[in-house]
Structure formats: C-alpha cells, structure tokens
Amino acid sequence: MFDGPENTMRKTILLFLVYALAACSKAGPVTLPTPSVTTMETEEAAVYAAVLQSMYPDLRLVLAEKTATDPGGAENTTSVLEFALKQMGEVDPQTAASFQVRNDAQYPLRPGMNIGLEYVLLTEDNMRQIFNVNQNGWDAFYTDYPGAPGITTLSRVGFNDAMDQALVYIGTQSHWLAGAGYIVLLNKVNGTWVVDQKVMTWIS
User: Fold this and answer.
1) What domain range is 165 assigned to?
2) Domain for residue 2, yes or no?
3) Is 1 inside any structural domain?
4) Does a structural domain hold residue 13?
5) pLDDT of 136
6) Is the dihedral of CA 154, 160, 162, 165 positive or negative?
7) pTM of the predicted model, to two decimals?
8) Which of 62, 56, 66, 71 is nearest to 177 (CA)?
9) CA 170 to CA 156: how far, in whole Å?
10) Cystine design at 95: which of 118, 152, 160, 199 (Cβ 3.0–4.6 Å)?
11) Least confident span in 14-23, 45-54, 114-123
12) How, if at all, do strands 61-64 and 178-189 pair?
C-alpha cells in the first residue's frame, strides 16, 4: 500500500530532524565565546572612566601604578569583597567571582588608558622618593602634582559573563590621616557604564 502525500511529507521531516539531532550530538556541547583580551581591556578602561569621572570630574589624577583592593595591597580581597557584598544588592555571582579571581595579586595598570581624564602613573620608586626622603612627603607630593585629590588606587575590574555588570575598588589617600576606599558596582545601560552602588570599605 502506497503512502499518501501527507505521510510522505511527515517521514521526510522526521528523517531531517533525526539527521539534525545526530549532527548536533557529534558537534559536542555549545559554549559561549569568552571576551577577548582587547574587549576586556577596553571595558575595564571604560569602567575606570565612569568611576573616576563621577568622583573627580575635571581633575588631573595621580594613579598608583599597581592595582590593589585596599591600602595593604590585594591580600584582603576576599574579606573586602565579602564586606561590600553584604551592603549591596543585585550583584551577579559571576561579577563577584571575577573580581576575586582578577584581584588575586597586584597587577600593573596599563599606561595610555583612555579614561577621559588626564592622569599620571606613580611608581613605587616615585613614592619612595617623595615620602621616604622628605619629612613632609605630602607637601612634596602636592608641589609635584598640584590640584590632584591625592594618590588614587584602582583594582582590576570584575565582570559578569554578559559584560554588563562590573565591580571595582577605588581608594584615594590624600594625606597621612585623610583618605577613603570604596567598592563600586556599575551596570551597563544603553552601552554606557553607570555607577549603581558604592560601599565604603575604609576611611582615615
């Protein structure tokens, strides 16, 4: 007995689906591409720009050459992050995990970043020359860098997989007993990084 046109069409579609499923199973699991290094660097600079411009618009900045998550460096990253997360809401676990992994140690900031503000990178040797040699180190600092808010330290930026949420640390020491540090949460809105929440993690 011959199949009618409708049965023939159903069999053809069924065979097509079988072959398609077989091809997919051979190809293995589908993985989403991870951001390239260039994309990560571009987005990181954009996050820095958003945070710095919101806090220090129109100022010439002095940035510590190496990243940190508190005045002691990166040793307290876990405790600093845990403290900040308790004060914040709606932080993607991927963002927090990325922040912790990317700040497992101190890293040099990239020179020539486009952050929309004029800045210089202050090396550890520069700091020793200013503060170890001079009894009035901060006076010497402000003579060399008039108008700066102090020495500003940034962490590396933690991102979620979608690259639309970010966490970053920013701290500025303005004198021996004057300064503060923050963990800042940003969201990407219509292609622009916007500060959402800010938690102070230390003050002097």
Assistant:
1) 36-203
2) no
3) no
4) no
5) 85
6) negative
7) 0.80
8) 71
9) 10
10) 160
11) 14-23
12) unpaired
